[in-house]
Specification:
Layout lengths: L2 H25 L3 E3 L5 E3 H17 L5 E3 H5 L9 E9 L1 H5 L6 E8 L2 E9 L4 E6 L3 E6 L2 E5 L9 E6 L5 H8 L4 E7 L3 H7 L5 E4 L5 H13 L3 E4 L17 E4 L5
Parallel strand pairs: 3-4, 10-11
Antiparallel strand pairs: 1-2, 4-5, 5-6, 6-7, 7-8, 8-9, 12-14, 13-14
Helix pairs in contact: 1-2, 6-7
């Protein structure tokens, strides 16, 4: 498959997983705790099963690193090309009755995200993009191109985590910048707000894993943005343990 066909596949799987998540939410579910005390539900496992089955059927032999398989102890090594899957990013938002949860499916080549989709089950939307080609939002059957914006004169709109992060560190990072507002979101939708030009900056100082960030990073990069570590290096993939360092998402560079 070429990258366009791979993106179509990922979009279809995100939509199928999102439909299953909505079904489970509508009929009710129980919440459990993983070994790291993070929450997990039937919806996480069901969505991941749909995505993994779809990828492995369409792409025999493909390498996939998925959150719940990893949590269950399956050890998969990075390869020159591999998929990263978070079947329900923002499980806490999901269990609390919010809408800011997502389905993340992204593809990495030689450590760099090249394409990804971020499904938004609560709104029946999918963001997608191929780096170097472009990004879009799929809603009601219509695919609309998205891109980052030049920050307005009034100042930056900054997105921040609703449940994670250190306010003092965020305030120090923003010091000296003209900030119009700070808006809190859950899950990978923070990347998407920057990608579609509704926000300009997303600094992340809390812990994240590669499956949390790969697909939304691909969407943001495809929309003209960038994701960098605090020393200005690109955020890369295939790291030991799949842990990310702190990072910053930029739209059109704000200085």
């Amino acid at each position: 498959m070429d990258d366009q066909a791979l993106l179509v596949l990922a979009t279809l799987l995100a939509e199928r997983a999102g439909a299953e998540i909505r079904t489970i939410r509508d009929r009710g579910f129980q919440v459990q705790r993983k070994a790291d005390r993070s929450v997990v539900t039937e919806a996480d496992h069901a969505a991941e099963a749909i995505i993994l089955a779809g990828l492995r059927e369409a792409l025999p032999g493909c390498v996939v690193i998925a959150e719940e398989e990893a949590a269950g102890g399956k050890i998969t090594q990075a390869a020159p090309e591999f998929w990263l899957v978070d079947p329900l990013d923002g499980t806490r938002e999901f269990t609390d009755g919010g809408d800011d949860f997502a389905v993340n499916i992204g593809l990495v080549r030689h450590g760099v995200p090249v394409l990804g989709v971020v499904g938004v089950p609560a709104r029946d939307e999918v963001y997608g993009g191929i780096v170097g080609v472009g990004a879009w939002l799929l809603k009601n059957g219509d695919r609309t191109p998205i891109s980052v914006r030049v920050p307005p004169g009034e100042g930056l709109t900054v997105v921040a985590s609703r449940h994670h992060g250190d306010q003092a560190v965020l305030d120090a990072f923003l010091g000296g910048r003209t900030v119009a507002r700070v808006v809190n979101f859950g899950s990978s939708l923070k990347f998407c707000r920057v990608a579609e030009g509704q926000a300009d900056l997303y600094p992340r100082f809390g812990r994240t894993m590669e499956w949390d960030t790969c697909s939304p990073q691909a969407v943001l990069m495809a929309a003209g943005g960038a994701v960098e570590t605090l020393d200005g290096a690109p955020l890369l993939y295939g790291k030991p343990g799949w842990d990310n360092p702190h990072f910053v998402c930029w739209g059109a560079r704000a200085g």
